[in-house]
Design a protein that fits this description.
Length: 358
């Protein structure tokens, strides 16, 4: 503890020096509200009408953008398999949606700046009580807002805004049409996601090849701790018109090599790996993102979208995250030339788990 001499020394050190004064400023004065400046729309009825026409024109332009986005979806169908259609589909749908949302935003801002009441006022705070007078005041506040904004009085602006907002939702709803094609007489399974994802290009004898080069993979070239992106042989020959993208989305695989003693394998799956090499679907069982991040030391696969983690040593079981089931395993072996081949297709549908499964 400090003695009395130390305490006195500290007090002297914090005393102001002789001759130095402390300036004390006057209390801050409220400058008040600046003088109100009238807008041109407040002074000139012609300018006001022009501003109103601008606002509802923007809202109708938004309506046109939404309609164009839906039309572009039908004019450039991605189901055609044409790469040009896919590009135009994304381009024109995006432009239509951008025009729809941007026009609503600009129109609403222009409305508030040029036509809505801009008189300054002070709202004094007071305790809130759940009385009838409070409810009546709330109703009156909505009525005042309607009067000040002109929402109920300016029918062209109101109707165009309602039409634009309703239409802006339509393109998003339309895009859901492409998630599950309808069944047709030529393709009765098109409306059944389980049937579509039950079978892929993998079959007995199909070689595992590098993605995207398409070169076969020798088992001896797969090093310990490596992770290789794999597709089935012959996939690249399909072309876009032949369903390349659709088949690749289902058949993509990640190949990894561990020490054989590190694998925990059930009796029925002991023949599905080769000398510590295992292959699992890259399609996450949560919402279908590509599972492509491999932690070499922990042997965990990580989905970058929602952080689901799978244990490669134990049948790719889920150890963390929202995924509901393990990644489907591709049974593999080696042919006479030492190349890795599949011995069968996946034994269950690939992809997300939220679809009903048989």
């Amino acid at each position: 503890m400090a003695n009395d001499d130390d305490t006195q020394a500290l007090e002297r050190a914090y005393q102001p020096s002789p001759g130095l004064g402390v300036a004390v400023s006057d209390p801050a004065v409220n400058p008040g509200v600046p003088p109100h400046r009238e807008r041109m729309t407040d002074k000139d009825p012609k300018v006001e009408r022009t501003a109103a026409r601008t606002v509802y024109t923007l809202f109708y332009l938004s309506l046109a953008g939404s309609i164009w986005a839906v039309a572009a979806y039908m004019l450039f169908p991605i189901e055609s398999g044409s790469l040009i259609d896919v590009r135009y589909n994304n381009l024109f749908i995006g432009l239509g949606i951008a025009l729809a949302l941007l026009s609503i935003g600009i129109g609403a801002i222009h409305w508030s700046k040029t036509l809505m009441n801009d008189k300054e006022f002070i709202e004094h705070r007071h305790p809130t009580r759940g009385r009838d007078s409070t409810r009546e005041a709330a109703v009156q506040a909505f009525a005042d807002a309607n009067e000040e904004s002109g929402f109920g009085r300016r029918t062209m602006i109101r109707n165009s805004l309602i039409a634009a907002v309703v239409a802006s939702i339509v393109p998003g709803v339309t895009l859901f049409r492409g998630l599950a094609p309808f069944a047709t007489p030529d393709n009765p399974q098109a409306g059944d996601p389980v049937a579509l994802l039950q079978h892929t290009m993998w079959k007995a004898g199909t070689r595992l090849v590098h993605d995207p080069e398409g070169t076969p993979i020798r088992a001896a070239d797969v090093t310990l701790g490596s992770a290789v992106h794999v597709i089935p042989e012959g996939l690249n020959e399909l072309g876009h018109a032949g369903g390349l993208l659709e088949e690749k989305a289902k058949a993509i695989v990640l190949l990894m090599r561990l020490r054989p003693e590190q694998l925990i394998e059930s009796e029925e799956r002991k023949s599905w790996s080769y000398n510590g090499i295992v292959a699992y679907s890259k399609v996450c069982t949560h919402v279908g993102c590509p599972v492509a991040l491999y932690e070499q030391q922990t042997h965990h696969l990580l989905c970058p979208c929602h952080q689901s983690q799978f244990d490669v040593t134990d049948h790719a079981k889920v150890i963390f995250g929202p995924a509901a089931r393990p990644l489907p395993q591709l049974p593999i072996a080696v042919d006479d030339e030492g190349y890795l081949i599949a011995t069968d297709d996946f034994n269950e549908p690939v992809g997300p788990s939220f679809w009903e499964r048989h």
